[in-house]
């Protein structure tokens, strides 16, 4: 056990009681607008202990902000977010992912496009820690979903300086900036789990982060075929708000749609191929609706533009309620593939 | 902003330009690189929906300031 003999570097503040501590955190500008749990030394040490991390261990270095993020600062913000200590390895893995050059911190964190950090949890840790992958998928009610994403956002705010109005310039933002965490419903899914598609073992636990717009819900209650359900999805998806330069999309298929599509024997690869081929717009259309500059030419009428670079950039996740004719798609932040892509990180148990 | 800061750090004169609504963000970025007094230029916002002629006009107006900043440097 490393904790009780370990020294924390963070400054200590004396407060009268719990209420004053909560108010003090507001006064310091350390909250996302909701009250935070005051980070006592004991709670911070418990968080570090659960992850097997020394406080001065550098978890991430955000190059284009020149900020080093230590395990201690992640732990402080995880406590403030309301995390249980056993959530700490997930928060650490997500913060590691944000520092990857392929995620490209500065663009998605700062852009007027207002991306939030979508986190997708896969592997045994999901059920063990109670991550929701079912009913009310993006809604409130699950501590693991609500607090791990909140912890990551508090790290972005309090450690990396991603403050609204300064280095977070989202024009309209979205509520996922409080927390935006789902798990794949591997137990009921007929498909290969997402982390296995990405090269991890099924028994490993993984968190994937994507700079993401909000979830766009779509409806189909009438079709009993994979093609029918996905045709409705594609019709909605190809005309959504910012069909320009999205590097990837997540498609979340909930219970009814998942079963309908699987009954037809479609794999995730089949879904990706269908969505890629059926969400393309003509250049003429994109120009007519003023999303691309320039006069419409005859050639533009037959020149098709896909919404992502390849079929593999449609990330298919099985999750959501058992009942209901709804699923959703989530556009990644529209900075182009060179600016930001989703990153998957192993959730490590470092307690040796 | 970051490109300009990195050029200057490499000894290459640079003039960063933002639109006016991003001045605070520009200052915050410079601050995070330990350069709170980093000088940069500002144009009226927005620019993405301007015609080519309007853009040329904006460029003509700010060109002398760019030259001045490049020659003067960050001193």
Name the strands of the widest sheet of chain A in spatial order. Answer: 4-3-5-12
What sort of overall outline of chain A do the alpha carbons produce when their principal axes are compared?
A: globular
Largest interface (C-beta under 8 Å): A-B, 12 and 9 residues
User: What is the radius of gyration of chain B?
Assistant: 13 Å
Count of helical stretches of chain B: 3
If you had to describe this structure to a student in words, what would you say it looks like?
The complex is a heterodimer of chains A (352) and B (75). Chain A has 352 residues and is of the alpha+beta class. Chain A has 2 domains: 13-213 and 341-352, no CATH class; 215-331, no CATH class. Helices cover 32% and strands 15% of the residues of chain A. In chain A, helix 4 crosses helix 7 (143-158) and helix 9 packs across helix 10. The longest helix of chain A is centred in the middle third of the chain and has 16 residues, at 143-158. The mean pLDDT of chain A is 95. Chain B is built from 3 helices and 2 strands, in the order H-E-H-E-H. At the A-B interface, loops of A face helix 2 of B.
Please render the helix and strand layout as text.
The complex is a heterodimer of chains A (352) and B (75).
Chain A: H1 18-27, H2 41-51, E1 58-62, E2 67-70, H3 71-81, H4 88-98, H5 106-110, E3 116-122, H6 124-129, H7 143-158, E4 181-183, H8 194-197, E5 206-212, E6 216-219, H9 226-237, E7 249-253, H10 255-263, H11 268-278, E8 281-282, H12 283-288, E9 304-305, E10 314-318, E11 326-331, E12 343-346
Parallel strand pairs in A: 3-4, 7-10
Antiparallel strand pairs in A: 1-2, 3-5, 5-12, 6-11, 7-11, 8-9
Chain B: H1 2-9, E1 17-19, H2 23-32, E2 41-43, H3 52-72
């Amino acid at each position: 056990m490393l904790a009780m003999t370990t020294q924390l570097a963070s400054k200590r503040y004396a407060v009268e009681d719990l209420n004053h501590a909560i108010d003090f955190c507001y006064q310091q500008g350390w909250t996302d607008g909701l009250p935070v749990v005051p980070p006592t030394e004991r709670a911070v040490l418990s968080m570090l202990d659960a992850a097997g991390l020394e406080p001065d261990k550098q978890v991430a270095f955000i190059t284009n902000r020149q900020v080093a993020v230590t395990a201690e600062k992640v732990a402080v913000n995880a406590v403030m977010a309301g995390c249980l200590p056993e959530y700490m390895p997930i928060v650490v893995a997500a913060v590691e992912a944000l520092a990857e050059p392929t995620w490209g911190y500065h663009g998605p964190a700062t852009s007027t496009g207002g991306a939030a950090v979508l986190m997708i949890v896969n592997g045994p840790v999901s059920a063990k820690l109670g991550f929701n992958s079912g009913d009310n998928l993006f809604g409130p009610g699950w501590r693991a979903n609500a607090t791990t994403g909140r912890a990551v956002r508090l790290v972005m705010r309090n450690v990396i300086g991603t403050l609204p109005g300064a280095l977070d310039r989202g024009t309209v933002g979205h509520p996922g900036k409080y927390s935006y965490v789902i798990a794949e419903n591997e137990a009921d899914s007929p498909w290969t789990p997402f982390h296995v598609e990405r090269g991890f073992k099924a028994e490993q636990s993984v968190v994937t982060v994507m700079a993401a717009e909000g979830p766009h819900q779509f409806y189909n209650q009438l079709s009993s075929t994979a093609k029918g359900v996905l045709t409705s999805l594609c019709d909605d998806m190809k005309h959504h708000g910012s069909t320009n330069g999205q590097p990837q999309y997540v498609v979340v298929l909930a219970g009814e749609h998942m079963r309908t599509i699987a009954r037809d024997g479609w794999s995730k690869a089949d879904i990706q191929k269908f969505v890629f081929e059926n969400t393309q717009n003509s250049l003429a259309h994109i120009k007519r609706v003023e999303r691309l500059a320039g006069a419409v030419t005859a050639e533009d009428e037959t020149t098709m533009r896909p919404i992502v670079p390849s079929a593999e950039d449609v990330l298919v996740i099985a999750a959501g309620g058992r009942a209901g004719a709804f699923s959703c798609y989530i556009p990644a932040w529209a900075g182009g593939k060179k600016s930001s892509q989703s990153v998957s990180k192993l959730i490590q148990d470092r307690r040796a | 902003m970051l490109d300009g800061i990195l050029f200057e750090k490499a000894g290459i004169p640079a003039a960063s330009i933002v639109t006016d609504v991003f001045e605070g963000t520009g200052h915050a970025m410079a601050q995070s690189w330990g350069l709170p007094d980093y000088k940069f230029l500002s144009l009226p916002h927005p620019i993405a929906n301007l015609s080519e002629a309007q853009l040329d006009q904006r460029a003509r107006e700010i060109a002398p300031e760019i030259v001045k900043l490049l020659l003067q440097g960050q001193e």
